[in-house]
Automatic annotation (TrEMBL):
Organism: Chondromyces crocatus
Protein's name according to its UniProt entry: Esterase
Superkingdom: Bacteria
Residues forming coiled coils: none
Classification via Gene3D superfamilies: DD-peptidase/beta-lactamase superfamily
Domain Beta-lactamase-related, residue spans: 27-362
Amino acid sequence: MHIDGDCLPAFTRVKDSFAIALEAFPTLGAALSVVHDGNVVVDLWAGHADQARQHPWREDTVVNTTSTGKGLVAALAHLLAERGQLDLDAPVARLWPEFAAEGKEAITTRQLLDHTAGLPAVRTLLPRGTLTDWQQMTAALAAERPFWAPGQRHGYHAVTFGFLVGEVLARASGVDVRTLLAREIAGPWSLDYHIGLPAEDDHRAAEVAPSVPIPGAPSNPFGPLSDEDRHVLLLAFGNPPELREHTIVNDPAWRRAQIPASNGHGNARSLARFYGGLAAGGILDGVRLFQPETLESAARERVRGVDAVLGLPDSFASGFMLPSPMRPFGPPHAFGHPGVGGNLGFADAEAKLGFGFVVNQPLIAGLGGDPRWKSLIDAAYASLG
């Protein structure tokens, strides 16, 4: 597969690993970027942006990066906290009074960030179309009863994370998440990343193909769960019902909506630059957005153990996922967020490295994370010398 883009000579092994990964695993289109010490040292893309393979992946192609967007949402929370606009350890209900219903009056924003709030799903079956309606989704969550005692377990809030944290951000800042991200992070750091893709950018959005299982990988990517927890899992990934339909991610309504945990659109370059800025202590291109101590706190481990929703061991900081045997990205001190199918962005402050990888042919990898990550990440670190 032909590869376009740039790669500094010292990082040619990254390009070689990218080429091998493209051939070794089912690939429609993909992009890879690495930032070191604030500079883009790898910026590569290959393949096609559509399932008919008529449109090549281009420099300005963006794609639904799935859950990698959670990292940017988390960063917004820490940014507002640093500015004194948001107290992460105060009850959410102080900003969002309706949220106090059903015993949620003491849940904090920090618990929303570290997935211990007990709200990974909504019990009431929601009608089709609810997912793209912010008011309906947040009202349903405000009225919901926690699935477990807040703070006692952690369980991945796959979709609800974005609505929960996003509503807190909106109430603390006075603007919606789309606007806040563009104004406070994407704009200042020149990131081509969007929660709610503008209609004028549809022409450069890659079409996402159906997921492909990796030969030998388990068909069920989740761990063992009790009947009760399995019911929560089904609700988390299937309510509203459109969550069960692959084609929704190519629908204009999905692209246009604000679903912060799941529908951020961007490219590998923007993920690498974002995490490169975090790895540099909060500064990119001379623009400081965060103080180093803010990021140190944001990346500090909050929970570790078997996830109540996924049934697998994982670890979270305040909004960021941390490396674990099931999600082996970077060294133990790295922080970032993967996304279903193979997307990944992370920061390593010690190495001053930011990493971004996106695809439009999701792989069902099963346990151990995406098999492409290790070779690409190993090549990046080996290139540092």
